[in-house]
Amino acid sequence: MKLEVKNITKSFGDKEVLKGISFSAEGGKALGLLGRNGAGKTTTIRILMDVFHGDSGEILLDGKPFEPRKVQIGYLPEERGLYPKREILEQMVYLARLRGLSKSQAEKNARKWLDRLQVDADEKKLLETLSKGNQQKVQLASTLVCDPDMVILDEPFSGLDPVNSQILQEVVKELIAEGKIVLFSSHQMSYVEEFCQEIVIINHGEIVLQGNLEAVKREFGENQLVVGGVGFSGEDMERLIKEQFAEMVEITGRDKEDVIVRLLPGITRTELFRRLGNVQGLEVEHFETYKPSLNDIFVAKVGEER
Amino acid sequence: MKRLWTVMEFELLSYMKNKGFVITSVLIMLLAGGLTFLPRVIDMSDILGIEAESMETEKAEGVGTDRAETENTAEGLKTEGAETDDAEDTGDGEDVSSDMLRLGLVDEKGYLPDKQGLEKFFEDAEFVYLDSEKELKEAVEQDKADAGFLVVDDISYRYYVMNKEMSDDNQMRFEQLLSEVHKQRYCEANGIDYESFVAEYEAPVQCEETVLGKDASNNFWYCYVLVIGIFMLIVLYGVTIATSITTEKSNRSMEVLITSIDAEYLLFGKVFAGVVAVIVQVSLILGAALAGYAVNRSYWGGVLDPLLDIPGEVLAAFAVFGVGGFVFYAFLYGAMGALVSKTEDMSKVTGPLQMVIMLVYVGSLLQLENPDGVMMKIFSYLPVSSYSAMFVRIGMGKVEMWEVLLSGGILLVSIFAAGWLAAKIYRMGTLRYGNPVKLSRALKELKM
């Protein structure tokens, strides 16, 4: 299965919130939708789910117009919500039946997911009687109860403690392994980094970076090295590089006591390493390829703006 | 259709699991059924104006009571309190004089009979004879008399009272008295035997009535009850449906729902569940009342027939127009519910709708005795009011079949229009949180 979002635009009144969003997602791979608050992630997802329509653009599934109510989708909206005064099993079965499952299949699936998320003992309880974390797990179970081909999770980890986060991580990995399309929106970069092969970073309604996460990291870290010396603080290293290596590298950042540098055109790693080896009193501790974290990339791309 | 049924089933379960709904329904049902057994338990002959069943045989013998009373009245005037019983009654009355009316009387020319004759018409009053209009006024003003009469002649009088009460019937009684005096004096003056005159003058007229069309006097009460009933059902259930939609917005389950199924199914499912709940509730309550009355009819002496003996055509019209009107308003209530995101804001948007329903209700009740009037005719075609006006016209007025069909057609088209509009507003209002969306704004946005 392949989902393609092509050039979606959306305005609310005079405010243009999406300015041509395009990306694609494939089964068996998770796509991380990243961006600051108000960047347009949730709007993109809501247009995808036909909560409201985009002003222009199209969405295709396997090359055909995408109709979200005709495909089994597990949707966990940012605004969580179920019926607080109804029994958990009852409302999960209802949601599954709305998605076209038979009553018996809906009950079977509901029990499976309640068991998987360790809230099976509460199936006859009213939702409002559960703790916030368990309510969140019930919401996740409700998202998956229709046995979806595509899963869209908007901030799925918010409100979960580390133990429950671990359970959810395992579930998401299973979904990916089962070949489902997983769309993932989150501010928690570590989770995105763990699951997502593909990322899309949205800023002010525009895509500022997208592609395979490893490739993005590679490209972002290209020609950059982490350099550090024994007994040298970060400031010492920065001063040294500015004074003695200005014609070979430029400083791009700091990583604790190490300095991140980019090789200037025509300079090789070997040349730099030899020069460092000749510096009196410097014993090289770190000299390695810089591998940026997703957090670094995110901050570099959208963090400078106020 | 399967998914519509799923929504209906879920919403119906919501009614069935609502303790307030279940308890209220069962209690009213028991009350409606239980009340019909009342005449078996207590003697209600005074309240109902009938004799208890145990006295039915005696009742058959008691024909002509009214006439006997009339004769008694005439007798009372003529004999001027000669009977011993009357004298005793007066004595008893003095013991409880604090509860009795004190009436001043100025009758300078002596037109009226003495005290005993007066008390035939004023059993609960004692008369104080005064000599002049001035004395009479003073007595009333100083609270020595509750009211007072000054007899000018046998066909005119003056009435004095300090503060006249709503229930003041002194004049009516005094006029009856004066009228009898006038008749008696006329008879005496013309040599006519008063007793035979009264017997002929007040001879009961026998009538065998056959109503070939509709009897508005019989149909009035059930039409009255049905108008009130459908009004209450529309308001009660309308608010329930609107609240249910607002609750889904406030607890944020709306977004999951509308991404699972088309908004039309959600709204229609709620409305149809409301219709089923109404039909079940009304059937249980009405069924209990009708069954109870059928069992106990003889104890009621048929008194409730005008209320519960409803012709089939009126019941059918009530079912069609009542359910139609209910669905029409339920859709509109649903749309109103989607305009707010907090249940406490509900009254802000349902106010205009409630106003329309109230106007229709008051208008229908005011025109109930004039079912063929212009207002009722207009009401019977408008979708906002035909739910009550048309079955009133069918029950009590003259209405042609084409009028019923036309009104039904207008209502049907309006239901579809309301359903379509409500679904659009419902869909549009899905993610509108915060302040209530004004209806005018919602309609404007729908046009865009």
Brief descriptors of the model:
heterodimer, A: alpha/beta, six-stranded mixed beta sheet, four-stranded antiparallel beta sheet, B: 448 residues, D-Maltodextrin-Binding Protein, domain 2, elongated
Walk me through the structure.
The complex is a heterodimer of chains A (306) and B (448). Chain A has ten helices and 14 strands. Chain A has helices spanning 41-48, 88-98, 103-116, 132-144, 162-177, 189-195, 213-221, 234-244, 269-277, 294-302, and strands at 2-12, 15-26, 30-35, 56-61, 64-65, 73-76, 150-154, 181-185, 196-203, 206-212, 224-229, 249-255, 258-263, 284-289. In chain A, strand 7, helix 5 and strand 8 form a beta-alpha-beta unit. The model of chain A has no long low-confidence stretch (mean pLDDT 89). Chain B has helices at residues 2-16, 19-35, 38-41, 45-48, 56-61, 65-79, 84-95, 115-119, 133-141, 170-190, 194-201, 216-250, 254-258, 263-300, 305-308, 312-339, 346-366, 374-381, 386-396, 401-428, 439-447; strands at residues 101-106, 125-129, 147-153, 156-161. Chain B is mainly α. In chain B, helix 12 (216-250) packs parallel to helix 16 (312-339) and helix 16 (312-339) runs parallel beside helix 20 (401-428). A four-stranded mixed sheet of chain B has the order 2-1-3-4, sandwiched between helices.
What is the terminal-to-terminal distance of chain A?
Answer: 38 Å
Tell me what portion of residues of chain A adopts beta-strand conformation: 25-35%
Q: Classify the helix fraction of chain A into a percent range.
A: 25-40%
Q: Write down the secondary-structure element order of chain B.
A: HHHHHHHEHEHEEHHHHHHHHHHHH
- Class by alpha and beta content of chain A: alpha/beta
- Rounded mean pLDDT of chain B is 82
Tell how many strands the DSSP assignment of chain A holds: 14
Q: What's the total helix number of chain A?
A: 10
| Cα gyration radius of chain B (Å) | 31 Å
Fraction of residues in β-strands of chain B:
5-15%
- The rough form of chain B would be described as elongated
Q: Name the structural class of chain B.
A: mainly alpha
Oligomer: heterodimer
Strand order of the largest sheet of chain A: 6-7-8-3-9-10
Number of strands of chain B: 4
**Major sheet characteristics of chain B:** 4 strands, mixed
In terms of per-residue confidence, which ranges of chain A show pLDDT below 50 for 5 or more consecutive residues? Answer: none
